[in-house]
Design a protein that fits this description.
Keywords: ATP-binding, Kinase, Magnesium, Metal-binding, Nucleotide-binding, Serine/threonine-protein kinase, Transferase
Number of helices: 7
Strand content: 15-25%
GO molecular function: kinase activity
Helix content: 25-40%
Catalytic activity: L-threonyl-[protein] + ATP = O-phospho-L-threonyl-[protein] + ADP + H(+); L-seryl-[protein] + ATP = O-phospho-L-seryl-[protein] + ADP + H(+)
Protein name: non-specific serine/threonine protein kinase
Radius of gyration: 28 Å
Largest sheet: 7 strands, antiparallel
EC number: 2.7.11.1
Number of strands: 11
Order of helices and strands: HEEEEEHHHEEHEEEEHH
């Protein structure tokens, strides 16, 4: 005999409320729809209806952190602007640098920028970042542990820290009149900078690529000393200075690659980084013909004086 409950009216399943942003994974086909026509089945096929009329993306100015004021006249801030990728300028272990044009369609308003993009978690990070990070802290112990253990989350945090540190240092130094690229904006791990080069996209050469004659060498040396003294007035040193992270554009020396900028007083290894920067640059200039009187000890003594530090050890012996 059947169970009497089998003859009761079956319970109705409650239909889930449908929202406007629900995605219909089974689109209805009209009587004339070709089942092989992917464009009719997937509205994402082809051109993005929300994309810019030209270029690769809408300008990321809105929502990013901006550089110091007053903004240079060449900075494009219009919401209608679009960004176009023009190629790779440099690849590195920690970041790649791309050439990007930001322009307002239909107008002559355009500018070139260097887009420095720090690598994500699955890529190698700074090989000596422990020394540079001394004195930099985050509030949450969980984040400190993640960075110390180099977990995926920790490496993402480190990438963001490097981008943020370089952006802050460039803004501070640019405002102080030091010869560095203007930092246009930072958004996550992407840093947009003033492009140092020509209007047709040719990047300025690095100091290491040049063989300056004696007058030019002397002029570049004085520009370098002025830049290092400008850093010292802010209590900083580059931390990894060499002829490869100095650009020369139309006779002007420009410091680049400052994510590891070091607080000379706040970082226990600060004086050692300062001494290394001075030694490497003085040796390069002397090797290329500068008088040996402009040695590492002389330069380091000047920097110590600017920083309010005692003379460098051995300075009196030179």
């Amino acid at each position: 005999m059947r169970d009497p409950e089998q003859f009761t009216e079956p319970s109705r399943k409650r239909r889930r409320r449908r929202f406007d942003d629900d995605i219909d994974t089974h689109p209805r086909r009209g009587p004339h729809t070709d089942p092989t026509d992917l464009a009719a089945l997937d509205e994402r096929f082809g051109i993005d209806p929300d994309g810019p009329p030209e270029g690769d993306r809408w300008s990321t100015w809105d929502g990013a952190e901006h550089g110091p004021e007053p903004l240079p006249a060449w900075v494009v801030t219009e919401h209608a602007a679009v960004d176009t990728e023009l190629g790779v300028l440099k690849t590195g272990k920690e970041a790649d640098v791309h050439l990007v044009e930001r322009a307002v369609p239909g107008t002559g308003r355009r500018t070139l920028m260097a887009a420095k993009r720090y690598r994500s978690a699955e890529h190698r990070m700074f090989h000596r970042d422990a020394g540079y990070l001394e004195g930099r802290r985050v509030r949450r112990s969980r984040e400190m542990r993640a960075m110390a253990n180099r977990t995926g989350f920790g490496r993402d945090l480190l990438a963001g820290q490097w981008a943020g540190a370089e952006f802050a240092a460039l803004g501070r130094l640019w405002s102080a009149g030091v010869a560095v690229p203007y930092p246009v904006q930072v958004d996550g791990t992407e840093l947009l900078l003033e492009f140092i080069g020509t209007d047709d996209g040719a990047a300025a050469p690095r100091l290491a690529q040049l063989r300056p004659d004696p007058p030019q060498l002397c002029d570049l040396w004085h520009q370098l000393v002025d830049a290092l003294l400008g850093l010292a007035r802010q209590g900083l040193t580059h931390g990894d200075l060499s002829a490869y992270n100095l650009l020369v554009h139309e006779g002007r020396l420009v410091l680049i690659d400052l994510p590891q900028v070091v607080d000379v007083i706040g970082n226990p290894q600060g004086p050692a980084f300062l001494a290394r920067d001075a030694q490497q640059m003085a040796e390069w200039f002397i090797a290329h013909g500068l008088s040996a009187d402009a040695g590492p000890a002389t330069l380091l003594d000047e920097l110590h004086t600017e920083l309010g530090m005692p003379p460098a050890a051995g300075a009196s012996d030179r």
